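I hope you will forgive my troubling you with a question about protein structure. I set the record out below, with my sincere thanks for your time.
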Amino acid sequence: MKFTLITLFPDEISSSISFGILGRAIKNKVIEVDYISLRDYSDNKYQSIDDKPYGGGPGMLIQAEPLIKAINKVRSESNKNIPVIFLTPQGKLFTQKTAKAYSQINQLIIVSGRYEGFDERVHELVDNSSEISIGDYVISGGEIATAVIIDAITRLLPGALGDENSAKQDSFSEGLLDYPHYTRPEEVEGIKVPEVLLSGNHNAINQWRFKQSIGKTFDKRPDLIKKRNLTDEEEEILNEYIKDNKE
């Protein structure tokens, strides 16, 4: 999969995705990453791409024209319908479901926001584009968010992880949080590993893990439980979990 990143600070993103899983994915050509400096599309000798907002107010806005030029240039060299993501606090929340959807395509343009955001006309004039946010908070720019999105999508691509089942078992992959994990030693300060995990009974282990997954989601993210619309069987498993933890 190819990511084309339009940004004012390419080095900030590059340093974030050069290690671990993403670094290996780039080295093994699971993903390709191109960097486009937005200042290269400025129409003035100072390479400025921002200006004051009409109507007054604090901060500066990224101008529409250089950004549209950059997007059109990328599309003209490849595919005019490449999806574009604009990273803004006003965007739709990025979720595991979103990552999975983007992992099914071959190319993606990601535009890192800065300052007070983009001239609104960019969203009206760029077809096949979406505004995306990684959470209900504000950070200094979209470069960190870009790295987050690339990471989440790349994990879902064949060949990115050492074990292809890892992504399937991650939190949110099925709309639930992950189950608890344990490793050696069997006891730490009086707390023992659940006996079922030592039993060698894989059917019992899978049942325990699913119960814990539903239960932990109910405890920590009840909003996800509501969205999932539990089946009768899942409701029964959740009730068992609640009963177990009351005793």
Residues 2-154 form a domain with the Alpha/beta knot fold (CATH 3.40.1280.10).
